[in-house]
Specification:
Elements (H helix, E strand, L loop, with lengths): L18 H14 L7 H5 L5 H12 L10 H14 L3 H7 L5 H33 L11 E3 L5 E5 L10 E4 L16 H10 L8 H13 L9 H11 L11
Antiparallel strand pairs: 1-2, 2-3
The protein binds a DNA duplex (21 and 21 nucleotides) through α3 and α6.
DNA sequence: AACCGCCGCAACCGCATTTTT
DNA sequence: GAAAAATGCGGTTGCGGCGGT
């Protein structure tokens, strides 16, 4: 495939956007939408490539965007999502309304990574001290895992010193048989069983659970990418509810 | 006041993926 | 089904602001 020529080769402008350019882009998108980013700059009279316009719009000019002031809750969500998804910034952004992949990526690299690094070194030195005083006190293979009613394990990252206020859960992706797609026909007993063992409070009955599952499946959660989104939603929904195994920590 | 180094963020680049022809 | 075009994504860079010396 032949690569399209990039901006500089076509004499287009690069670098920071001026307020005038922003205004042109905003009013053009408001009036005409952004069905075709490639054609947009020409139509709007901007000396930018389509890619640059799209980036400017999605990361900065979009009306529904929240900028700056990442809350503690958002920070914790980012950490939890990062444990689940790795560097899939756009997938993380989809779980944080008003935040962009670029912003999350920047926040991760500039703030959170640093905090976690500090936390980790503090924790490691504490562990070292414990090991020195009582070598049998810690088994690294099991110490930070908790079994959930036969549904595999969650890894548990304890509270950071000061800044990060809660335990972080991350399901280990050993999908139990009960959740495997091949066992998800329309069997009510399967859903009953899940409900009995893992009931999120706002799910009223087997049909609701089934619908919820099917919605997630539509979003390609099960059968792709180890069903991480499905697991994520399940754990998020179940957290904090009575009987949820995580809340005993 | 001038210089320097660090940090945060916006924007770019190149590759991957999806959509269109 | 193949090729081309468009879009999306994640890694990286460069610049401006700020604090310290």
């Amino acid at each position: 495939m032949v690569r399209a020529p990039c901006c500089d080769k076509m004499g287009l402008k690069k670098g920071p956007w001026t307020p005038e350019e922003d205004q042109i882009l905003i009013s053009h998108v408001q009036q005409n939408g952004h069905a075709n980013w490639r054609a947009l700059p020409k139509q709007a009279g901007l000396l930018r490539c389509g890619k640059s316009c799209r980036l400017r719009w999605t990361n900065y000019l979009r009306p529904d965007i929240k900028r700056g002031n990442i809350s503690k809750e958002e920070e914790e969500t980012i950490i939890r999502l990062h444990e689940l998804l790795g560097n899939r910034w756009s997938a993380m952004a989809a779980k944080l309304p008003g935040r962009t992949d670029n912003e999350i990526k920047n926040v991760w690299h500039t703030h959170i990574k640093k905090k976690l690094k500090n936390y980790q070194s503090t924790r490691d030195s504490k562990r070292q001290k414990i090991r020195e005083s009582d070598p049998q006190s810690e088994n690294p293979n099991i110490s930070n895992r908790k079994e959930i009613n036969g549904f595999g394990y969650m890894s548990i990252s304890p509270q950071s010193s000061g800044e990060l206020s809660s335990v972080t859960y991350s399901p280990v992706m050993t999908t139990p048989d009960i959740f495997k797609p091949e066992n998800f026909n329309s069997s009510k007993s399967t859903f009953s069983e899940i409900r009995k063992r893992f009931l999120p409070g706002d799910i009223q009955g087997d049909d609701d659970l089934k619908t919820w599952f099917e919605m997630d499946q539509e979003l390609r959660c099960v059968g792709s990418d180890d069903g991480k989104d499905f697991w994520y939603n399940l754990f998020i929904k179940a957290q904090g509810l009575p009987g949820f195994p995580g809340d005993v920590i």
